[in-house]
Amino acid sequence: MQSNEWIVQDMLELKRGGMLRVEDGRRMLVYLWEGSAWLTQDGENRDVMLGAGSWFRIERGGVTLLYALAECRLTLTSPYEERYAVAVQAIHPGARLPRTLYQAQPTAVESAFGRLRAALRRRLDSLGSPAPGSSAAAS
């Protein structure tokens, strides 16, 4: 049986204190080429320490955080060619905002539900407001 692994991020460098945030990256593999890092996942009681040459396969949905304990070089791969995560972000030490490395595009169904949700929200909001041209104050 052949198993393909697709490169998500190749040779990503994180300075000490930098973080990597993976949202819903189930089955994604983190391979640490250099450095050391601490990895934690939503809903998981155990954390993982990674050293040079070690790897970890994300087995849960939710958010996975990797914190660079020393300067790191890492690769992210996935068995999925596309939509391997909702988002992947790097947060560099001292930076105010994360840098988005990957953001999944919504599928046609997700887009349709988003438009439907927005239309329903507008309709519900209009039910609570007075009709155009009417006065809210009684004489």
Please characterize this protein's 3D structure.
It is a single chain. By secondary structure, the protein is mostly beta strands. The chain has one domain (6-103): Jelly Rolls. The chain is built from 1 helix and 10 strands, in the order ββββββββββα. The chain has one helix at 108-127, and strands at residues 6-14, 19-23, 29-34, 36-41, 48-51, 55-57, 63-68, 72-78, 87-91, 99-103. Strands 5-4-7-2-9-10 form a 6-stranded antiparallel β-sheet, with no helix packed on it. The longest helix is centred in the last third of the chain and has 20 residues, at 108-127. It starts with 5 loop residues before the first strand and ends in a 12-residue tail after the last helix.
Sum up the structure in keywords:
four-stranded antiparallel β-sheet; 1 helix; Jelly Rolls; about 15% helix; mainly beta; six-stranded antiparallel β-sheet; about 140 residues
Brief overview:
This protein is mainly β.
Number-wise, the strands total: 10
CATH architecture: Sandwich
Strands ordered across the widest β-sheet: 5-4-7-2-9-10
- What's the rounded overall pLDDT mean? 87
Number of domains: 1
As a whole number of angstroms, the C-alpha radius of gyration is: 22 Å
Percent range of helical residues: 10-25%
Task: State which percent range the strand residues make up.
Answer: 35-45%
CATH topology: Jelly Rolls
Number of helices: 1
Biggest β-sheet description: 6 strands, antiparallel
CATH superfamily: Jelly Rolls
Which stretches are low in confidence, meaning pLDDT under 50 for 5 or more residues running? none
- Write the element-wise H/E pattern from the N-terminal end onward: EEEEEEEEEEH
Classify the secondary structure makeup into a structural class.
Answer: mainly beta
Distance between the termini: 81 Å
Give the class-level CATH name.
Answer: Mainly Beta
Shape: elongated
